[in-house]
């Protein structure tokens, strides 16, 4: 059974320019222990999808879905209190801006200690004190912080952004959640640290059967351990499936473009040559194209594309496009 | 022949919080020297907290160095000489939302540096603003827009327009590409390369991404805990054998700390 099962999730909101559909029939499934990357450019609705899962959407918005299940339970049918209980126990989230999320008035040690479940430390008062301290140090080591003594005593603003991000990861994994949603957790980090964190997330997924939903803008930065990948554009799902298959034989023009525009692909080009890019910019909510929202920027678009494509399947991947690429020879 | 930019032993120290008057200052940047020629791109790399932002802010004159000298075309630049510096060295920040003034139109923001630094008539100013907007791939109409009406990529273009409007010799960009979407990032890199070809601008860019560095940098300066441990042409750094830390930064491998510092204090308890 899927840990998380989302079918045709749609979110609509009333903006100053009328009603807009910010998520358009998005489906996503996540198994226990699976590492899943959600890729899309800014404004594609990645954070909204994450917020729908943890249940912190604006109550004024129209949220509909054929299914929004957590562990077989219908999240949409729950009271806010029931949902908060599930979110608090089973889920954790790391945010794009760690400094905004950390408490500026307490030290790193205090904040991590607070996140360690009370039941985890037992014994006499002194015992608990020492135990907590070693646990904090352990958590810091796990996220690749070496000089834990100095960092434990620091306040968030004394940390560089990368270190602050690591600290927020340590806090997030302290209560051993079932699902960790990492909303672009590694932009502020140098690639070697990023590597370390990604391996760590991959390792945790296996050893604690924790699922990870990694949200990112660039296919280049998806976890090496990612089993599946989903690509979102302007609130519509473009393609999802097995990472290897999708990246090696993309069916969707958007996936294809994202691969060609990724940092990894730049390394193979002649220095200072022109980089490939999709023309134009991501449309604003006010001017969403009808049908397939990639239409105006898609090199393969034709008349049919004003009708939204239905899902199609090919081996290990599913995609939404009238004119798929890399079709096997008939 | 003098260099376009020459840094001699620039350094920066900070007084730690909760310190005694006699306690040692922490060193953000150890004495660093390098040179940059016209039309070249220098990339500054290093792990988090290694002093990249500190160095780039000193170069752009946003922050004063604790010591050392900076020469532009052979002439010494003082921290207080902000006018000469800001005409020749401009900075683009990572967050265009914070660096653009939300209350002013794009045109007004581009006008600001002109009012302070150039003697021009109104119509000349307007012309220059429009031609600069076109250079960065925007339209003259965008002068009337407020920042909130623009997309992230367009805002970053405005930030670049503001940096190049005074026809600077050097543009310093601290992580200015990291927050951009892949398609916009590729467009902005193409734009920067075009401007370099047309206007002969030199760039000093701070980035974590070895792929971007390989693509646009002629030289690389590498910092490790505030110390410059490498400064060389990109070609040579990529082809010659390097120490593990440099290797890791350029090829995205894991850093093994004991190899660099020669101690084993980095034991990991699991
Ligand atoms: N509170 C809100 N009120 C109005 N519109 C919103 C709100 N939150 C998000 N949106 C809109 O919904 C769309 C999706 O936003 P979302 O934050 O999910 O994007 P994202 O994919 O996470 O982008 P990024 O990569 O920049 O974080 C955007 O167009 C955004 O403007
Ligand atoms: N205002 C300040 N007060 C005290 N220490 C500072 C200050 N600014 C920077 N530092 C310290 O100087 C060192 C270098 O910081 P800097 O911001 O230059 O690093 P960086 O290489 O830009 O890191 P990042 O990749 O995270 O942006 C760090 O150890 C930092 O803690
Ligand atoms: S449906 Fe049409 S516009 Fe959309 S991705 Fe496919 S070809 Fe392009
Ligand atoms: Mg987001
Ligand atoms: Mg910095």
TrEMBL record, chain A:
GO terms for biological process: peptide transport. One of its GO terms (molecular function) is ATP hydrolysis activity. Residues 4-259 form the ABC transporter domain. SUPFAM superfamilies: P-loop containing nucleoside triphosphate hydrolases (SSF52540). It is found in: Cell inner membrane. Keywords: ATP-binding, Cell inner membrane, Cell membrane, Membrane, Nucleotide-binding, Transport. GO terms for cellular component: plasma membrane. CDD domains: ABC_NikE_OppD_transporters. It is a peripheral membrane protein. Belongs to the ABC transporter superfamily. This is ABC transporter ATP-binding protein. The lineage of its organism: Bacteria, Pseudomonadati, Pseudomonadota, Gammaproteobacteria, Alteromonadales.
From TrEMBL, chain B:
SMART domains: AAA. CDD domains: ABC_NikE_OppD_transporters (cd03257). It comes from the Bacteria. Keywords: ATP-binding, Nucleotide-binding, Transport. Pfam families: ABC_tran. One of its GO terms (molecular function) is ATP hydrolysis activity. GO terms for biological process: transmembrane transport. Residues 5-250 form the ABC transporter domain. InterPro entries: AAA+_ATPase, ABC_transp_ATP-bind, ABC_transporter-like_ATP-bd, P-loop_NTPase. PANTHER family: DIPEPTIDE TRANSPORT ATP-BINDING PROTEIN DPPF (PTHR43776:SF6), TRANSPORT ATP-BINDING PROTEIN (PTHR43776). This is ABC transporter ATP-binding protein. It comes from Idiomarina baltica.
């Amino acid at each position: 059974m899927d840990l998380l099962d989302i079918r045709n999730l749609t979110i609509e909101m009333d903006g100053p320019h009328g009603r807009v559909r910010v998520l358009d029939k998005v489906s996503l499934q996540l198994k226990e222990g699976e590492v899943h990357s959600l890729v899309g450019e800014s404004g594609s609705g990645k954070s909204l999808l994450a917020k729908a899962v943890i249940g912190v959407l604006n109550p004024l918005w129209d949220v509909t879905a054929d299914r929004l299940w957590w562990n077989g339970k219908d999240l949409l049918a729950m009271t806010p209190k029931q949902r908060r209980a599930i979110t608090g126990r089973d889920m954790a989230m790391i945010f794009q801006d760690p400094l905004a999320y950390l408490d500026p008035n307490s030290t790193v040690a205090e904040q991590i200690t607070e996140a360690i479940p009370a039941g985890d430390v037992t014994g006499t008062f002194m015992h608990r004190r020492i135990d907590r301290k070693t646990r904090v140090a352990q958590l810091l080591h796990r996220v690749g912080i070496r000089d834990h003594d100095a960092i434990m005593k620091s306040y968030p603003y004394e940390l560089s952004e990368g270190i602050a991000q690591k600290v927020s990861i340590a806090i997030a994994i302290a209560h051993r959640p079932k699902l960790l949603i990492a909303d672009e957790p590694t932009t502020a980090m140098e690639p070697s640290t990023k590597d370390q964190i990604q391996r760590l997330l991959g390792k945790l997924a296996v050893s604690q059967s924790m699922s990870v939903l990694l949200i990112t803008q660039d296919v280049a930065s998806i976890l090496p351990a990612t089993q599946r990948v989903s690509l979102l554009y302007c609130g519509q799902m473009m393609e999802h499936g097995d990472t290897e298959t999708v990246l090696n034989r993309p069916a969707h023009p958007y996936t294809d473009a994202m691969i060609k525009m990724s940092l990894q692909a730049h390394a193979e080009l002649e220095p200072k040559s022109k980089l490939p890019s999709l023309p134009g910019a991501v449309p604003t909510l006010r001017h969403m194209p009808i049908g397939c929202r990639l239409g105006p920027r898609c090199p393969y678009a034709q008349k049919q594309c004003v009708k939204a494509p239905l899902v199609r399947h090919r081996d290990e991947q599913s995609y939404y496009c009238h004119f798929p690429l890399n079709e096997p020879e008939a | 022949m003098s260099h376009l930019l020459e840094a001699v032993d620039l350094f920066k120290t900070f007084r730690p919080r909760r310190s005694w008057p006699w306690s040692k200052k922490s060193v953000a940047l150890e004495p660093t020297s390098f040179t940059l020629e016209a039309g070249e791109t220098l990339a500054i790399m290093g792990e988090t907290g290694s002093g990249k932002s500190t160095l780039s802010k000193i170069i752009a004159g946003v922050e004063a160095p604790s010591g050392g000298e900076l020469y532009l075309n052979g002439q010494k630049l003082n921290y207080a000489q902000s006018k000469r510096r800001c005409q020749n060295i401009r900075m683009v920040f990572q967050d265009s939302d914070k660096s653009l003034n939300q209350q002013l139109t794009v045109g007004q923001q581009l006008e600001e540096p002109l009012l302070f630094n150039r003697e021009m008539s109104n119509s000349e100013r307007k012309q220059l603003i429009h031609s600069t907007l076109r250079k960065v791939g925007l339209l003259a109409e965008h002068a009337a827009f407020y920042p909130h009406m623009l997309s992230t990529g367009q805002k970053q273009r405005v930030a670049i327009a503001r940096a190049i409007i005074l026809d600077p010799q050097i543009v310093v960009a601290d992580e200015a590409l990291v927050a951009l979407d892949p398609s916009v990032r590729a467009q902005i890199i193409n734009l920067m390369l075009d401007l370099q070809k047309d206007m002969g601008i030199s760039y000093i860019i701070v980035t974590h991404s070895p792929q971007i560095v390989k693509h646009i940098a002629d030289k690389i300066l590498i910092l490790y805990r505030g110390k410059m441990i490498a400064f060389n042409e990109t070609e040579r750094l990529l082809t010659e054998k390097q120490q593990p830390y440099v290797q890791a930064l350029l090829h995205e491998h894991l850093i093994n700390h004991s190899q660099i510092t020669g101690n084993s204090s980095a034991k990991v308890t699991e």
